[in-house]
Amino acid sequence: MTTFLLIRHGLTDAVNHYLAGVAPGIRLNGVGRTQVARLVERLHDIPLTAIVSSPLERTRETADAIGRDHGLAVQTAPAFLEYDVGAWTGTSFPDLDANESWQRFNTVRSVTRPERGELMLDVQHRSVSALLDLRTRYPDGIVAIVSHGDVIRAMLLFALGMPIDFYHRLEVLPARISIIDLSREPICL
Questions:
Q1: Which domains occur in the chain, in start order?
Q2: Looking at residue 82, what DSSP letter applies?
Q3: Predicted TM-score (pTM) of this structure
Q4: How far apart are CA 152 and CA 3, in angstroms?
Q5: Per-residue pLDDT at 183
């Protein structure tokens, strides 16, 4: 069985203010760096087999700190990249609230694509496919995956057998860990 520690990056100035999406250059703020330091302490005695991260700065900052403490090189995997929200990237939440597409998106993510963005089902497919590949590579390991709230929710919904439209039923906070154990039993996508 492979144990996956799904870790959301530490706090940034974007969290709860605007959609950062796949925009580069968004780094951890002071609170986020403190959160990551505590996260590293909590993970110190966990025998990690591998650390895999989204390529964005905020996830790399989080993963690199864990990697330094464990003496492991961080592997970068685009499959764990943040949800591409297309034209909404950089838009504040108050500005989105009046947008009908945004309201529909938050009701039925399974069939609502942000303009020039990707479907949540596509996010789930790419991230779960990568998770299953890692399960094959590390069949008895403990793998830390540092990613983003939406991506982690997509993987958790799959693991729980819940529809993607139940997205809002899960809370994934910055610098928090969600754990999934995957056996070698066949899983259908």
A1: 2-182 (3.40.50.1240)
A2: P
A3: 0.94
A4: 15
A5: 83
